[in-house]
Amino acid sequence: MKTAFALPAKGEVYPIEKKASARIVRALCPELPLLAFHTMHGPKMSPGRPYLATYSFHYLRILSLRPEFLSDRLCATFSERVLPYLCGRIVQIRAVSFTWPLVVVAIEGGMYEVTCSAGGLFPSSEEIARYIKKHPRRICEAP
Q1: Other CB atoms closer than 10 Å to residue 44's CB: what's the count?
Q2: What DSSP string runs through 50-112?
Q3: Per-residue confidence (pLDDT) for residue 34, from 0 to 100
Q4: Which pTM does this prediction carry?
């Protein structure tokens, strides 16, 4: 597994440390080609919405967040519940060759898996709400 690390944007931080995430991913999803840490601000991303990670069959990108979205509890939940869940999902989608990217967002008291928009763009708040209403794939409660 290749690990790519970019310094977070000014004033942002990652919800988990690089070493800790690599250990979890290697243990649960050793065939994953790329674990990356990126700051991403896409054109459709809603600024008040915490986007935690994006992933597909060949990568897992952990996203940097503004400090007001992070707490010790959220970081612990990401490490203990969300990252292991994502590893399991990547194993599943690799088994069926599903290639469309997904994103993890915190909304309405939960952390949800949502498919990305056309072109692989991050979904807006409206798209997230519609998707969750139609396909409520809740990973866990948001702290």
Answers
A1: 15
A2: -EEEEE-SSEEEEEPB-GGG--HHHHHHIIIIIHHHHHHHHHHHHHTT--S-EEEEEETTEEE
A3: 97
A4: 0.86
